[in-house]
Design brief:
It is built from 22 helices and 16 strands. With about 525 residues, it is α+β, with helices and mostly antiparallel strands. A hairpin with a 2-residue loop joins β4 and β5.
Length: about 525
């Protein structure tokens, strides 16, 4: 059943009363479609509690289980008569219930060569009130389970219910309670898609196949996150790799001549990074950030068509993308605060991890609220050359500079530049600092940069002929200026000069190293050519 715009207008009349009267009465452990809550709340509560169980000195493998419940066609099997009776019992006015009855009585279906038949069960798809109606329909079940197993061990997001059970007897009791409710309310438990996940410190073979028709499993996807017995997230890694592979294949179809690096970066932010935004809190809570950080940066490099051997830290800094550590800290902090407000108790491990990542969360907030100009003292300002919304092409400055700064790590057809020890022009050690600050071949680029800077500002690094510091400090660059307006003018000239100089630095340095720019290709492309 799909709601039309006219029906949504009618539903909005009933929605206000439903929210005012139902939301306060919905069980605390039900977070599905509740304002201000989301899937992350129960994912982190469940994983955090599983870690607390593992860390208990009296913990013994095989005693604790995560029991995941799945209902067959849950939203389509809501009995209308029972639903309206439950609403009236709650104190919802007969006027509001009659509006809902009028709407649901108007829904019909028909088969070929048959008369229309009224639909007697199910909540409408796309309806304003359906999420709240379903939450209330299953509220008695969730409340009973919470009363028996406790708030700490009960997790419900609409029809996705999980329980932490101690021993087989608690699992049997949960199955019995759920089956009884299902019979009374027209629901149907889908035992084949339910799962019992043993909680262990290390993965072991399953000791039995099923209990009361429900299978024991090595992994279960709860609210989109593949969890395993020992919380190593070993099944999340290939899942993420497959998703990122599909994105990379699609983005490589985009014509380079039409779409620039900035557009590719935006595509990555919207279609690849979103997976890390969702999974990063769980990754951090399970202590697996370092394992997934390489996957994070590798996907970024592939999306931007950059060599895989570029170091990660400079790439993150140049592109202005927060690290996986920072992303995890930010989302974990926000969700933990939500859990603190709603629940009197929350996992110890969740609180500890959030505290450990508080600095990373602050760094993330600083990135999101970065300003282009900030006065640090009288006559002294910091300029953020990659500030969002400033109107400059981030890829022209950041990524062209990034290729230069990491030039010696890029593989060419003749071999890695990193193996070059002597500058071909000067006969001295071939370092990044040498090419930027001293090599004669780049003198023209240095002069161009100096002449292009507004006289209204002074850049300490350039005054000291330290171009390396400038190009590695494109965030929070310290300058001297008489006032805010002068600093603004200086920022404009610095950006334009840096874009020109960066391109010339790259071109001249490649020329000095006798490297053809066309040979600077990502490692996977070269491997493909060799094969």
């Amino acid at each position: 059943m799909i709601s039309s715009p006219i029906i949504k207008l009618i539903e909005s009349i009933a929605l206000k009363e439903l929210k005012e009267k139902l939301e306060p009465q919905i069980c605390t452990t039900q977070t599905g479609f509740i304002t201000g809550l989301g899937t992350q709340v129960h994912i982190l509560r469940l994983v955090g509690k599983m870690i607390d169980i593992q860390d208990d000195p009296y913990f013994k493998s095989g005693n604790w289980f995560a029991f995941f419940v799945d209902f067959k066609s849950a939203f389509d099997r809501v009995d209308h008569t029972l639903l309206f009776q439950k609403l009236l019992n709650t104190g919802i006015s007969s006027r509001t219930v009659n509006i809902l009855k009028l709407l649901y009585n108007s829904y019909h279906f028909s088969l070929p060569d048959d008369r229309p038949r009224r639909i007697k069960s199910g909540v409408t798809q796309g309806s304003l009130v359906s999420p709240l109606l379903y939450d209330w329909y299953v509220n008695d079940l969730v409340s009973n389970l919470t009363g028996q197993f406790g708030i700490e061990h009960t997790f419900a997001y609409a029809d996705d219910i999980a329980l932490l059970c101690l021993g087989y007897s608690e699992i049997r009791a949960a199955i019995s309670k759920i089956e009884t409710w299902s019979r009374d309310n027209g629901a149907l438990i889908n035992k084949k898609k339910c799962g019992i996940l043993p909680i262990r410190k290390r993965e072991m073979p399953l000791s039995r196949k099923e209990l009361e028709g429900i299978p024991f499993v090595q992994t279960y996807k709860y609210l989109g996150v593949p969890l395993d017995s020992s919380l190593t997230l070993k099944y999340l890694e290939p899942y993420l790799q497959e998703k990122l592979k599909k994105f990379t294949l699609r983005i490589k179809l985009v014509l380079r001549s039409i779409v620039g690096t900035k557009t590719k970066l935006n595509l990555w932010q919207n279609y690849a990074r979103c997976y890390f935004d969702y999974f990063s809190p769980t990754i951090a809570l399970c202590g697996q950030t370092s394992k997934f950080a390489s996957l994070f940066t590798k996907s970024l490099k592939k999306a931007l068509d950059l060599p895989l051997h570029i170091p990660n830290d400079p790439l993150i800094k140049i592109t202005g993308v927060p690290s996986l550590h920072q992303i995890a800290g930010y989302h974990l902090g926000n969700t933990t605060e939500t859990i603190r407000v709603r629940f009197a108790q929350y996992p110890t491990s969740l609180n500890k991890t959030t505290t450990d990542l508080s600095r990373a969360a602050e760094e993330y907030r600083a990135l999101k609220t970065a300003v282009s100009i900030k006065e640090v003292s009288h006559g002294s300002y910091t300029l953020d050359l990659l500030a969002e919304g400033h109107g400059y092409e981030r890829d022209l400055l950041g990524l062209s500079t990034g290729v230069f700064l990491n030039l010696r790590c890029v593989h060419t057809l003749e071999g890695p530049i990193g193996s070059m020890r002597i500058c071909p022009t000067c006969g001295v050690e071939a370092t990044q600092r040498h090419f930027l600050n001293n090599c004669p071949i780049n003198e023209e680029a240095r002069n161009l940069f100096r002449q292009s800077i507004s006289t209204a500002v002074k850049i300490l690094a350039i005054e000291n002929d330290d171009f390396t510091t400038f190009f590695t400090s494109i965030r929070n660059l310290l300058v001297g200026a008489t006032n805010q307006e002068a600093a603004e003018e200086g920022l404009d000239s610095i950006l334009k000069a840096a874009i020109k100089a960066a391109k010339m630095f790259v071109s001249k340095t490649l020329q000095a190293c006798a490297v053809n720019p066309s040979t600077l290709q990502p490692a996977e492309q070269k491997e493909r050519k060799k094969n």
